[in-house]
Specification:
Length: 135
C-alpha cells in the first residue's frame, strides 16, 4: 500500500493549484519571507524555463531558490562548485525533484564538498608524516 503524499495536510494536486502567496503561508518562516520578498530575475528565468520545457534537463546556478510544487518531477543540474586546477568547468549534481523536497532550497540537494578519503602520504611528504603506527 503506497501512502499518499501530504504537505501540511494538502495533497500535491492541491499544492499545484495554489498561487505562490497561498503556498508561502504553508512554509517555514525563512522560506515564507523569501517568497514574500519576491522572486529575483534569476529565479523567474528558471521558473519560466521549467514551465516552457518541463521534461528537459535544466542546469542552474540558483541554489537559494525555494522548491515550489510546480517543480516536482523536473530534472535539475545544480551547480556545486567552481573549477579547480585540472578540472574543466564546474561540477553539476543531477537531481530529480520529488514531492518530499517541496519547501526546501535547491542548494540543499547539491553538496558542495566531497567526502575526504585519507590514504598514504603523497609525493613530497616529510619523513615525520610518513610514519604509520602499527597499533
Amino acid at each position: 500500500m503506497v501512502k499518499a503524499f501530504l504537505f501540511r495536510g494538502k495533497s500535491l494536486d492541491d499544492l499545484k493549484k495554489m498561487t505562490v502567496e497561498e503556498f508561502g503561508r504553508l512554509l517555514t518562516s525563512s522560506e515564507r519571507r523569501r517568497l514574500r520578498r519576491g522572486l529575483t530575475e534569476q529565479h523567474r528565468k528558471l521558473l519560466e524555463n521549467i514551465r516552457k520545457t518541463p521534461g528537459k534537463f535544466h542546469k542552474t546556478h540558483v541554489r537559494d531558490m525555494v522548491i515550489l510544487p510546480e517543480m516536482v518531477g523536473v530534472k535539475l543540474g545544480i551547480y556545486t562548485g567552481g573549477s579547480k586546477k585540472g578540472d574543466v568547468g564546474g561540477k553539476w549534481a543531477s537531481v530529480v525533484i520529488a514531492p518530499e523536497m517541496i519547501g526546501h532550497r535547491i542548494g540543499e540537494l547539491g553538496m558542495t564538498c566531497k567526502r575526504v578519503k585519507h590514504s598514504s602520504p603523497g609525493v613530497g611528504a616529510t619523513r615525520g608524516s610518513k610514519h604509520i603506527p602499527l597499533k
